[in-house]
Design brief:
Distance between the termini of chain A: 54 Å
Structural class of chain A: alpha+beta
Largest sheet of chain A: 3 strands, antiparallel
Oligomer: homodimer
Strand order of the largest sheet of chain A: 1-3-2
Order of helices and strands of chain A: HHEHHEEEEHE
Chain lengths: 146, 146
DNA sequence: CTAATTGCAAAGACTTTGCTGTGCT
DNA sequence: AGCACAGCAAAGTCTTTGCAATTAG
């Protein structure tokens, strides 16, 4: 069994909850995403793969995954829905948001992580996660359309 | 007239929009907040000061303020609503979120701003704003309640 | 003057919840 | 048996929008 599944199973068990087939499938599909996704995308991906998991279960499972830190819940403000980001992947989990198109570009910055740890410690906290977004416009396009 | 009001007025004018009394009042009240606030809080503060501004106008005005970068819209995920942060204040605009209580503590980090500028440039973007949140739990309270 | 704005209530988008029947353990 | 679950549809929360009257420039 993969590491993320193991972690999830243990987390659920420790909280008196069950590692059900639906939850396993949801995490499995999430692991296949290579960028932040919306709840609706996840639901569609499940359906495409012939898995019958209800919307309610998807939302409930996402909540559990966020709690156990396997998934980071992010709000970009490009719509009103949440995005979810599977933390197990190798790619970056910080994001640049193109304010002109709403496109989200993940990147990685070890400096951010180091800064996060230092700042949290200085403020008397133990860091659990962070969210870092840069809003920007493509250089060379400095003019705004009125 | 204060600087923020000037900026707002100019922004509105440049976009063929009007600097109305309602918009002036909304910005005025926003300037009095010393931490991120919700739309509802703003509405209540307006009412408390005997100002009759509708909810629709509050939301519409917030949207304009966000567009002209006087206000940063932030999503903490502690509820499903947006928070708004007036950028004109001196205090920090990065935030530490206590995951145990949901409390939001602003802080300031020049390094984050520098990092933001460098990363955006390297990726071919001009930074417009950023959002940085650290989720953490108070040190010395490492144990989670089950 | 006349396009932009306001307030209100209704509509909308996304998420959560109550309930009923199932399934682990 | 006994608690946790899944699915469904209804309810909820926050935000946006249509419309008629009003106002800034």
């Amino acid at each position: 069994m993969e590491q993320a599944q193991e972690l999830f199973k243990t987390f659920l068990h420790d909280h008196g909850q069950k590692y059900t087939e639906e939850r396993r499938i949801v995490l499995e599909v999430i692991e296949s995403f290579d960028r932040p996704f919306e709840a609706e995308e996840l639901l569609l991906a499940l359906r495409r793969q012939q898995h019958r998991v209800s919307k309610a279960t998807v939302y409930r499972t996402l909540k559990h995954l966020v709690e156990c830190l396997l998934v980071n819940q992010i709000f970009f403000g490009t719509g009103k829905q949440s995005y979810y980001d599977f933390v197990g992947t190798q790619r970056g989990h910080d994001h640049l948001v193109d304010v002109q198109t709403g496109k989200i570009i993940p990147f990685s910055s070890p400096e951010i992580a180091a800064l996060r740890d230092r700042i949290a410690r200085e403020m008397g906290f133990t860091p659990v996660a962070h969210r870092f977004q840069i809003l920007g416009k493509p250089t060379g396009n400095p003019r705004e359309a009125h």
